[in-house]
Amino acid sequence: WMFVMGLAASVVGDVILALPDMLQMKAKATVLTLIGGLSFAVAHIFYISAMVVSFGFRWWIILVAAALGLIFFFGNKMIGKLDYGKLNAGMPIYSIFVSLVVAESLMAFISGAGVLVSILLLVGFVLFWLSDIVLMNIYFGNRSDNQKVNLYYYNLTFYYTAQILIAATLYFLI
C-alpha cells in the first residue's frame, strides 16, 4: 500500500506543478512549486518506507544517497548554473529524498529481492532521479523557450517511464 500512496502523492505533485501553466497562475508559481515539491517528498517517503519494509536497510544506503544528493544538487547548481531562488534552502533536502529512493532500490537489487522487481525499481528510480535533474533545469535554469520544450520531452519521457516501471512492481509485490 505504501507504493500506491507514493504513486498517488506523485499524481498530486504532478497536478500542483502543472497549475501555474494551466491556470495562468504565474504569480503563485513559487508557492505551487514548493507545494508540488513537498508532495513529491511525501511520495519519496512512502517509496523509501515501502522498500525498507520489503527489502531491509543497510548503513551504506546513507552514503550512496549522500553522494547522489551532492551530485544532484551541486551538479545542477554548478554545471547547469541553476538558481533555485527562494527554494535554495530546501533543495539539498529534496536532493537527499530523491537520492534515497535510488540508493534503496540499489539495495533491493543487490540483495537479490526478486530479480525482476528489483530491476524495475532500480531502473524506475534512476529514471525518476534523471527526470528531476531535467526538471530542475526547466524550472530553475536560464533556458530559452525552445530549450525548455526540448527539456520537457526528456523530462516527461524519463518521468512517465519511471512511473510505469514503479507501478509495474505492484503486480509482483501484491
Helix content: over 70%
**How big is the Rg?**
16 Å
Number of strands: 0
Pick out the low-confidence regions: none
Number of helices: 6
What structural class is derived from the secondary structure elements? mainly alpha
What is the overall shape?
Answer: globular
Mean pLDDT: 85
Note the beta-strand portion. under 5%
What attributes characterize this protein structure?
174 residues, mainly alpha, 6 helices, 82% helix, globular
What does this structure look like?
This protein is mainly α and 174 residues long. It is 82% helix and 0% strand. The protein is globular. The relative contact order is 0.13.
Quick recap:
This protein has 174 residues and is mainly alpha-helical. The protein is built from 6 helices and no strands. The protein has helices at 2-22, 29-55, 60-79, 91-110, 115-140, 145-173.
Q: What's the layout of helices and strands?
A:
Layout: H1 2-22, H2 29-55, H3 60-79, H4 91-110, H5 115-140, H6 145-173
